[in-house]
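Reopening this one. Same input as before:
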Amino acid sequence: MDPFYYYTIEQPSMAEFKDRGSKFLAFAYPAKNIETCKKLLAQLKKEHGKAVHHCLAYRLGVDGSTFRVSDDGEPAGSAGRPILGQIDSKELTNVFVVVVRYFGGTLLGIPGLINAYKTATALALQLSPIIKKPIEIPYELNFDYHQMNEVMLLVKHYNCSVVEQTAQLFIQLHIGIPKNRLDEVLEKLGALRDVTIKTTLKLD
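Same output, byte for byte:
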């Protein structure tokens, strides 16, 4: 794993694989949290209510530490694991894949199922461009209105992402600082007068 960057997919994609009458529809999504995965799954189950299985896998977090697999009624290890295997073979994270199966009347056996779920996932992942993203450390900045330009110039210059901005008596800015530029950015922000900086990173 690169300590400063991670790889994910740029946009949702869908692919279809057929074997002996059964149809496997693979849906791949960029996703940053479990909540997003749950919503996407609920949506798919609604759209494909007649499908017999909705098997899935996800890997989340810039370090890829959060993951889950589900065989959704298929024999253990025949669906979720092969799906996750394809996500991992491309070294991706923040990716959620659901493979919807419409049964065609013929049992495929465990090797057949593994191949079908693996192939459908591989096809879907091939259709979405893979992008390299910087690992960011979350910070909260508090400052007065007249410092807005100075702060925003720094934020833009170092390609920090703005997550949230609230303005009341002063401005509160939640940003993500690229890990490989962290020391520089903190030094520059620290040199600005009356800007308070604190990390919002949750430490285990």
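So the earlier flakiness isn't reproducible anymore. For the record, The chain has a mean pLDDT of 95.
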